[in-house]
Amino acid sequence: MSDDIHGLAQWTARLNNAELPAMAVVVHDLLRLSQSQTASVRQLAEVLLRDASLTSKVLRVSNSVYCNPGREVIRTISRAVVVIGFDQVRMIGLSVSLLDGLLKDSPREQLQSLLARSFHGAMQARNLADYRALNEKEEIFIATLLRHLGEMAFWSHGGKQADLLANALAVTGVDREKTVKRIVGVSFDQLTFGLLKTWNMGEIGQLVQASYSSSGPAARAVTLGSAIADAACDGWAGEAIQALLDPIAELTGTTPEEAMQQILASADEAVRVAGTCSNADMGAWIPRTDDLPLDLSALLKMDAVPAQSARTAVQEPLLKPNLEMFKLSVQNMVLMTKSPINIDNTLTGVINGLHLGAGLERVMLAVLADNQTCFRARRVAGKGTQSWTQEFNLPCATDAQHIFSYALQNNEVLWMGTASSSGLQDLVTADMESWLGAGPFFIAPVMAGTKRIGVLYGDMRLSGRTLTNTQFAAFKRLTELTGQCLQALSRRG
Predict the structure, then answer these.
(1) The domain 323-492: what is its CATH number?
(2) CA 327, CA 322: separation in Å to the nearest integer?
(3) Domain 8-19+104-310: which CATH class?
(4) What is the pLDDT of residues 453-475, one digit of tens each?
């Protein structure tokens, strides 16, 4: 093995002579923008436009149904920022840079598996940070994605030594850490910290190191996100996932049941995003949730209920998002903003788009009625909602004493039940919960120009599944189009 590379210094030099540092420069610059209070669209575009291939892939992902459910055509970085948001475009750029840099050429199985697991963990960690309303979401995402950078870089550029290590680790009962040290000459964690240091990503390196020992919320999000991805490889109903539910619930301020719903929704999101951010089929390496039961309580009692029997507990099929239905609803409503037909077509479009398209289990349009003294249900969709059209009656509070009035008076689209909206939780009144039950929901004002019409409401209360970022984007898009359609109808007279 005299020609082999051995030890931290030699491997760092070898990997720094590869193309990885170019990737690191892009990541570093995008992270710098995330930490700046004055970052502009122009600065973001300048970073991404350095590489035509990167720009092309960012635009491809921005046009995907996941990021852009309204399917508005995006041809420039500046337009992408307008349609899907500055932070989302930056995160796409970070993801594409890292995935492309590591998956270049013909990636071996070990790299694809590890990178998919790291990406899954990063999505979990970012969503935990979002739920906890932490400011360092991008840093947490990247720290989790790069937590195994040394090993990923080795499998990507290790050559014959990577083949040698793969064969050695395939032996039953082998000590992994000792084998890596013998063949590589350094632990993968040491190689990770060395690379992050030479790439001038010290703050990310500090967060990665803190994730092994610190109890701070950002470090805990990195630790738990990575642990979820690892545990999921043994099955969503396994003991490893069960052991994480209490720590996740403690971090996010939820119950273990809600924590389970949250991580399953994040797993679904990771599968969808992985499929758009990389040419490799990374989504195939992330454990699916399709065969899990409608009643997730079976998964929380694994000492009594085997995984296989839990899967047979499904009593009715889950409502799944239908992207074609959503796209059709958006297209029809866009047409109606230009050539309005009637109010019924508009309401049918938004309700079908949210229920059948976005997969929201219960949807309601509640309008101001009785001389604007109350909210009444005008259109509904979902099991158990039909009685709302005759019976739902929520007094309208002019001083915003409940969330329906608050959302309409302040013209805010809200995702209730998350840490970022916790300050408004007192506005979810007992009267509301008597009608709708308790738990997270979306609510948005419906306006025709400056005229207040009512609110749109959506939830996933039937199954208890977690609402997703994709559904929230769809909810906001259809709310916007509803207002435009109603304004067009009012102009027509």
Answers:
(1) 3.30.450.40
(2) 9
(3) mainly alpha
(4) 999 999 998 888 889 888 998 89
